[in-house]
Amino acid sequence: IIVLLALHKCPNTAYSADIRYRGFILTLTFLFYTAYHLSRKPISIVKSELHRNCSLVIRPADLNFTNNATWCDWAPFDQNNYQTLFGVLDNSFLVAYAIGMFFSGIFGERVPLRYYLSFGMLMSGVFTCLFGLGFYLNIHSLWYYSVIQVLNGLMQTTGWPAVVACIGNWFGKGKRGFIMGVWNSHTSVGNILGSLIAGAFVSSAWGLSFIVPGLIIASTGILCFFFLVESKFLFSWWVAEPAEAVEQHTEAISFSGALSIPGVVEFSLCLLFAKLVSYTFLYWLPLYISNVAHFDAKAAGDMSTLFDVGGIVGGITAGLVSDYTGGRATTCCVMLLTAAPMLFLYNYIGQRSLATTVGMLLLCGGLVNGPYALITTAVSADLGTHESLRGNSRALSTVTAIIDGTGSVGAAVGPLLAGLISPTGWNHVFYMLITSDLLACLFLSRLVYKEALGWCRRVPRARGFKEI
């Protein structure tokens, strides 16, 4: 309220006021999606607490258990198939998220984004807290946790199309790659904060690892309801519109119409495999570090945050490079090709020393999350405001949902495959990730070729996308 009143009373020009509002919306949406990712992270931290090596745990003298091998585990994750059960939990969330995402963009274009985001964050907070309450209510039913994950996955789909649509409504294409590269660090910041918050409680009362993030995202939902302004055009009654304002169209684009926009299909398929890799790390990296480097749950969670730190740098770098070169597809392809051998090296030498582990996690995080960040932000916004749409700003939410929804299919498949493959050895999991990176690059080959032709012909190219 104080910020908005200050902006209202400020005697500056309309252009200056517009810049101030943009900064406010950028910060607000950054906070919102940080909360979304913060509430997704606890499950990956808690896994190594739900199933532990009980021979290394000091058993309290007053506890009497008949099974010495699993006395410290949380049923039903105390059996040898615990990795498969973890995969069920991951995919309960991710499959629901992937399916819901295709419909989320359609709703997002027809419902006020402020209400849509507020409802989604409040309900995500409720379901995240309900998962944590299983600890205090002593619930050991796989069905309970799976249903909670499904419902939470559906609620989480409200976030991405809505926040990208807000940013696209407020910012032009000029520096979109850089601005969205910085802004998209909310994904990594949310993962880092989620890891640290969950790690603070995981060894003592893992239920709080979910309840605290649940309360945080619910609180941001209330903040959204009172403060979000979804489009600069809603301020037309308050401040004079900038000269760059375009005509608002009221007709939402159809699903098939969004698919026909040049570049949407290629980037969607690329993101399917890029997000497969990113989300496999999101859900399985702490457990991998715990198993291979023999860290406890908290230390493994803390170490895994370095991957997200690298992701922040990678996302910003990808945005800067693609802004400068005008080659979104080429930037993604180069990073994906470089990521493949780096993943191979991390698996084989990444645990030899602390310095090697830190360096490889930072490097792999940047190369894996850079293309993912660029596609889900600047590329989605570029395609959602493509010149073929003739200024129809209401296409942005649907295009974003199609691209991220397709990517979410990969996000669901990756952790599932990791759960099925990891019992045969972590080497096979990394081979799967390397193959996925190469396939992601393959789907961009036509767009890379078009961009290369443009450079060779020295044709002046606007940032973003022209006809492909």
Please describe the structure with a list of short key phrases separated by commas or semicolons.
transport; membrane; 468 residues; glucose 6-phosphate:phosphate antiporter activity; mainly alpha; sugar transport
Please provide a written account of the structure.
The chain is mostly helical and 468 residues long. It is built from 18 helices and no strands. Helix 2 runs parallel beside helix 5, helix 4 packs parallel to helix 6 and helix 8 runs antiparallel to helix 13. The longest helix has 31 residues.
Question: Radius of gyration, Cα only, in angstroms?
Answer: 22 Å
Helix content: over 70%
User: Major sheet: size, sense and barrel closure?
Assistant: none
- Quaternary organization: single chain
Query: Number of helix segments?
Result: 18
**Poorly predicted ranges:** 1-7, 237-247
Summing up helix and strand content along with how strands pair, one would put the structural category as mainly alpha
Average predicted local confidence, pLDDT: 83
Strand content: under 5%
Shape: globular
Strands, total number: 0
Distance separating the two termini:
44 Å
Tell me the series of helices and strands, N- to C-terminal. HHHHHHHHHHHHHHHHHH
